[in-house]
């Protein structure tokens, strides 16, 4: 990736609040000389927007915009889906783990937009499979479900979101006491979280008026979520999660996704110390995994069958990570970034046990 800008000439003003987009007249820019840099390309063209009068450069359209170590973006993407922890990646490249975390966040935001732009907006024609991958954030006292909707035939991951849960299962007496203390201090997770988030996810994946076959396990919140969505039709079939997780299991597509997430993401390994300290970070990583799963990785390692995106007919071949990172995505150009997706993009998904969570409000490095 030597050429910094993916465009020969700037196609639009990169400033989020520029009103040139609402104008019907053609947008113009003025060339404003160059700035010099130490690495290649040594000269970068500068521009001025004729509408808002602000400056930008050819680099404003690159995913590597404003990075001190831009060459690491691509290898870090690969490491993040190859089960490395932030500190392991940091040691390999001689950077601090917070640099890797920031890169993971940027890649996550990019992948959220990449997927949102490309995923089919019409009603899926294949059966959908819904499940929650159980993980935790901050400590084992804060479990969460990562809800996934996967295509029953294509294995395409249509969407995901999160639901914070209350710690349950067998606990030692001191663990019960500690849970009480934590809940007094930070509040109890919303008991309706799964129902609310599954409802949001299904509304996002299935457009109004759509009808789909939906397979899931016997989670009690799922029928309640479906019952609230009156303008879509769901034919819901349920399978016990105790059934052997074989190829014949109706939930196989989502079981395989769960398996692959745990296999490729260090933060979801069992008994790991690389677990996500913030739920937001886990969601960014899941966005990276989703793009890799849908557009880069083959559906089968042994019998090459193409990517899930190819099976769905929205891609003609597998993409490389370099192609995925080809050009910078802007949230205001993606169109449908609102609701949960906007909260996730702008880093507003809170981790209860951390009082003040830093959101993503950088003005330029979107
Ligand atoms: Zn402008």
Report on the structure:
The protein is built from 12 helices and 8 strands. The protein is α/β, with parallel strands linked by helices. The strands form 2 sheets. The protein has a 5-stranded mixed sheet with strand order 6-5-4-7-8, sandwiched between helices. The protein has a 3-stranded antiparallel sheet with strand order 1-2-3, with no helix packed on it. α2 crosses α3 (97-118). The longest helix has 22 residues, at 97-118. The two termini are 20 Å apart. The structure holds zinc ion (ZN). Zinc ion is lined by residues 13, 15, 18, 20, 49, 51-52, 54.
Topology of this structure?
Layout: E1 29-36, E2 43-49, E3 55-57, H1 73-80, H2 86-93, H3 97-118, E4 128-136, E5 143-151, E6 157-164, H4 173-186, H5 193-205, E7 211-216, H6 221-227, E8 233-238, H7 252-264, H8 279-296, H9 308-312, H10 321-324, H11 331-334, H12 340-345
Parallel strand pairs: 4-7, 7-8
Antiparallel strand pairs: 1-2, 2-3, 4-5, 5-6
Helix pairs in contact: 1-3, 2-3, 3-8, 5-6
Zinc ion (ZN) binds next to loops.
């Amino acid at each position: 990736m030597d050429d910094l800008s993916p465009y020969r000439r700037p196609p639009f003003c990169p400033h989020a609040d520029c009103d040139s987009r609402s104008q019907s007249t053609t947008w113009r820019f003025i060339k404003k000389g160059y700035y010099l840099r130490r690495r290649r390309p040594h000269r970068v063209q500068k521009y001025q927007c004729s509408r808002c009068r602000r400056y930008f450069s050819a680099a404003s359209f690159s995913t590597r915009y404003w990075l001190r170590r831009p060459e690491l973006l691509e290898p870090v993407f690969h490491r993040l889906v190859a089960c490395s922890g932030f500190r392991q990646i940091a040691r390999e490249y001689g950077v601090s783990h917070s640099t890797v975390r920031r890169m993971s966040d940027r890649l996550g935001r990019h992948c959220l937009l990449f997927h949102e732009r490309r995923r089919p907006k019409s009603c899926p024609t294949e059966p959908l499979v819904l499940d929650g991958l159980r993980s935790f954030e901050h400590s084992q006292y804060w479990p969460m479900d990562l809800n996934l909707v996967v295509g029953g035939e294509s294995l395409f991951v249509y969407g995901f979101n999160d639901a914070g849960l209350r710690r349950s299962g067998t606990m030692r007496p001191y663990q019960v006491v500690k849970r009480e203390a934590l809940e007094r201090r930070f509040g109890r997770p919303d008991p309706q979280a799964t129902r609310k988030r599954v409802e949001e996810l299904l509304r996002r994946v299935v457009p109004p008026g759509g009808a789909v076959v939906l397979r899931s396990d016997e989670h009690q919140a799922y029928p309640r979520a479906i019952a609230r969505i009156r303008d879509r039709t769901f034919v819901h079939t349920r399978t016990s999660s105790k059934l052997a997780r074989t190829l014949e299991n109706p939930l196989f597509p989502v079981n395989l996704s769960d398996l692959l997430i745990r296999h490729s993401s260090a933060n979801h390994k069992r008994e790991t110390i690389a677990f996500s300290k913030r739920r937001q970070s886990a969601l960014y990583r899941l966005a990276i995994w989703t793009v890799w799963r849908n557009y880069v990785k083959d559906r089968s390692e042994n019998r090459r069958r193409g990517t899930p995106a190819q099976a769905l007919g929205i891609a003609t071949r597998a993409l490389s990570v370099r192609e995925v990172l080809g050009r910078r995505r802007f949230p205001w150009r993606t169109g449908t970034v609102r609701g949960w997706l906007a909260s996730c993009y702008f880093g507003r998904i809170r981790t209860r046990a951390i009082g003040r969570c830093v959101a993503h409000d950088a003005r330029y490095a979107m």
